[in-house]
Amino acid sequence: MKSGKNKKAAARKAAAAARAKAAATAPKTPAAAPEEAVKPEAAAPAAKVEPAKTEPAAKAEPAAKAEAAPAPKPDTKPAPQPALKAAPTQEKLKAAPAPEKLKAAPKQEQLKAAPVQEKLKAAPKKEALKAAPEKPAVQAESDDAAFERRLARHYDELKWLYCELYNGDEQAFEYCVSMLRRAWADRKPALRTQDAAREADPNWYRRQDILGMMMYTNAFAGTLKGVEEKLPYIQECGVNYLHLMPLLQSPKGRSDGGYAVADFRTVQPELGTMDDLEHLADACREKGMSLCLDFVMNHTSEDHEWAKKARAGEPGYRDRYFFYDNWDIPNEFEKTVPQVFPTTAPGSFTWLDDCQQVVMTNFYPYQWDLNYANPVVFNDMTENLLYLTNRGIDVIRLDAVPYIWKELGTTCRNLPQVHTLVRMMRMVCEIVCPSVLLLGEVVMEPAKVVPYFGTPEKPECHMLYNVTTMATTWNSLATADVSLLRHQMDTVCALPRDFLFLNYLRCHDDIGWGLDYPWLGARFGTSEVPHKKYLNDWFTGKWPGSDSRGELYNDDPRLGDARLCGTTASLCGVEAADFEQDPFKMERAISCDLMLHAWMLVQSGIPVLYSGDEIGQLNDYTYHDDPEKADDSRYIHRGNFQWDLAELRHDTTTRQGKQFEGLRRLETIRAEEKAFDAQADVWTFDTGSGHVLGVGRWYQGHKLIAFFNFSPEFVHVSSWEKGPYDELMYGGHRDDLNDVELYPYGFAWFLHTEDI
User: Does residue 441 carry a catalytic annotation?
Assistant: First the structure.
């Protein structure tokens, strides 16, 4: 609650009695170039905005080799930088300990195949899921030499960008370089070995057998040790990419689901310790799994050590945030900055009664936005990031990355400086931990998402969420029309193949209806507000004929806007069918659930399951009885994993068995069939029905033709692609695809293999 805003007159009076220095307290930031408007239909990424290329200060060559004793491990807290001191000379920097001999990367264990569901086509004899491509031999190179090589490769660009962003502050830059050396010295031999192997095989994460799963530690297994004990189950699901939702220290009742971090180096006590996290990461690595963790970089909790010191007025700490003596400048920001949570946390600033200050809080009042115009913030947050990667985290999810640079008079979204910061973080990782991937959370339309890939010459994020396709998928289900989905897919298919998306149906968050309304309006005369209301009515079961069961999030009646929450199974109608004990509805709902997963798996990129979806877990309404959760409907799909229902996963007479076995069959086909290769050609085609999406994939003579029926009706469709075809999921052989009948919410994967 931002109750302070109701006391603006009193606040101004109190602040005026102190001093009027709004202009002096405003952060000094380089002028930002205005955002260029990007047409929604544009397929190519927007050109990356580079900092003005003025000649940097005299080049300081990195030392070829550090001398002296091995550096000690950094403390559990980052080195304080209240005032930047001259960085130590590189001769005095401590070198990393002598490396062990590089070992071969551990082979990924074979994913356990689920028993084949009855009525499904018998799976082809599977010798093994495709193993990682054979790694090129890694040339013998000392660990220190590898680090120096990587540093030298990026040094000039890193210094150039850093000094452009921070007004030529070479002192801060040299501190940053020394911090990278400390992080490297702290990196253990097993991680250095993995670095070398993955550096030699840069496309390791693009294999078609990569399958992700995201989960809350406490909901899935209680603790980190519990998750480690359940790794065999995760492997049985075919998962080799595990994303643990936020688990770092955050205050009870003011955690925002773990996104209000009070300590970046401490695990929530109820979940375990940092040692437990590192042990889990080691266990995952031994089993061929990559571990992903959120890095909340836009803000900290008000309980963070920096925030407490800022609140107390300690020198140097208020500069890490956005503090103001009065509302003058905050009110100017409010004129152009959109509200993130207009109903639950309106506005972007909070008045602090205890210190008579205004602080920027774009998300919730207890989450204070960090000021990345201060190089100390970049240095210390980067050190926190590297601390996590050195605990064995393979994928860093950059939370709310478009928000991290603030500029008065702008939306404070997607500013050019954001791309500079992400590019520097990419180089930092390539220097210290080249096996680590950056996953960007950019919940926006494609034209604003794509630039976060960077360019082939200057890449930024390795992966991005395919948010718009996810939302458009659910829109297609509610409308039984695939026109917009096909349009969206055509946009994605036109992008370079090196752009890797994470594809998903559900996640920890809500579904926002950020659809291409200009296209819908021009094509169908669709108005945004009435259409959003229809979608929300459909998925909450209010619309006649809908069996979907969801709840609204951040409902704003004034704007006619709201987001949607619910599990995949409940939104597909499984919950309603289960409640009504209607076998016909249940079969249709399970078909819908499997069709959507089949559609997710046919997309290019990495498919990610939401924990519980593999067994069709339903909404959990118990959150209404928890005072700490009752105001946040997202907890409806964050319920505890139902292990009793998971025990039924191999019994195909149950819905859990039908869903689990059907999904495992799809995943196995995807892992083994060449047509799903990341470099495959992908296209959509006209099926002859507005209810059915047609997708084609081709790679090395293997052609997949897929149909997805988004309606509850029997539909006849066709494709003029040359055959013959084998149906991969349910079996059968066809000479052509001139007339294919699809069941309600049905799908088909047809494969043609050319003679080559």
Answer: yes
